[in-house]
Amino acid sequence: MGHGRGRAGRVPGNPQGTQPRSQRQRDAGADQRRLDERARHAVMDQMEARSMKAILIAATLMVAAPAANAQNFLERINNGLEKANKTLAGQSAPARTAAPMPGTMQPSERQMQQMVNALVAPGKPDEVRPMYEASRDTILEILLISSCNFSNPESLLRRFSAPDASLSFVAANVGMRYHPASECLDVERVDGWKMKAKNAFRFRVLFASEQSGESSQRHYELVKQPDGAWLLRHAAPW
């Protein structure tokens, strides 16, 4: 009887009496899940890039800073972002009625795409990513101002400054002797992501001139406010 019980305890077709699913099958399943997760993240990154590009396109239809009218520039940024967000939410945005003002700068299609690519590039620590996602629209506005306004960028950035902010921002083209002042700079890289506190993080932006090959870098730090807004605590060349 003991011999019969031994046979009954085994799984048919499995002389070792192990579970039907082998370790190799479990490993293959785990590998597939990892591949599926990577594919999901890749799709999410593509969707994020398209969403941000739509925001930038809508913003730059209305944005372009006249050198003597910073407030007008800010209003145009707000209008562009608002219309882009409505469009992304499935609502119809009002048609553009006014042409860009003479003498203003707007990033090209290539520069907008490069800005988005630089912002969504890998390299953000896990602890920074939720803060980045919550402040993404603010970062886009900061990048747009920094790369396309050389006459009064600090005054424009002060709209985003925290109460205890320390802004020593210098226009991104300062020190570039050969870049044409009528052209936006490329946002070459956005990196150096670092959590400073549970409600604050820092990053670096590398600006480059396609025309001259010159480059400069600026550092930014954002901190979350009690009302949920993300504002600049630091903006400077260092």
Please sum up the structure shown:
The protein is of the alpha+beta class.
Describe this structure in words.
The chain is globular. The protein is 43% helix and 19% strand. Strands 1-5-4-3-2 form a five-stranded mixed sheet. With 238 residues, it is of the alpha+beta class. The protein starts with a helix and ends with a strand. α2 packs across α3 (70-88) and α2 (23-62) packs antiparallel against α4. The model is unreliable at 1-11, 58-71 and 83-104 (pLDDT under 50). A hairpin with a 5-residue loop joins β4 and β5 (230-236).
SSE layout:
Blueprint: H1 2-8, H2 23-62, H3 70-88, H4 109-120, H5 129-148, H6 153-157, E1 161-167, E2 186-197, E3 200-208, E4 215-224, E5 230-236
Parallel strand pairs: 1-5
Antiparallel strand pairs: 2-3, 3-4, 4-5
Order of helices and strands: HHHHHHEEEEE
Question: With helices defined by DSSP (H or I, 4 residues minimum), what is the helix count?
Answer: 6
For the CA atoms, what is the radius of gyration?
26 Å
Q: What gross morphology would you assign?
A: globular
Q: Percent of residues in helical segments?
A: 40-55%
Count of extended strands: 5
Class derived from helix and strand content: alpha+beta
Largest sheet: 5 strands, mixed
| Strand numbers in spatial order across the main sheet | 1-5-4-3-2
The residue ranges in which pLDDT falls below 50 over 5 or more consecutive positions are 1-11, 58-71, 83-104
How far do the termini sit from each other?
A: 82 Å
How many domains would you count in the coordinates? 1
* Portion in beta strands: 15-25%
Please, what is the average pLDDT?
Answer: 75
